[in-house]
């Protein structure tokens, strides 16, 4: 199975399976066995088997395997660095945001305020 491009329409399982397939191809192209890759990455052979089979794994294990397969540079494309918006920089005086904000609702905006003793 090979897919040219991952899509948001794909299921999580389909994406995991495709990523596992691609990692297996990279490993084979580099003439590494699963055991050798696991040893070099500092993970268990079972972890490599699970990732290549499309099962979920801890992010640190995926990063270690990507490092051995020389795929770390590709991780930068997964989640690109966001460009700062000029007006946001002015409003925050150069500080970066630490949290996402949610919309605030005013309680009973349609009703006049009353005292409840």
Automatic annotation (TrEMBL):
Provide the residue span(s) of the region labelled Disordered.
82-117
InterPro entries named among the record's database cross-references: Cro/C1-type_HTH, Lambda_DNA-bd_dom_sf
HTH cro/C1-type domain segment(s): 23-75
SUPFAM superfamilies recorded: lambda repressor-like DNA-binding domains
Signal sequence region: none
One Pfam family hit: HTH_31
This protein's source sits in the domain of life called Bacteria
Full protein name = Transcriptional regulator
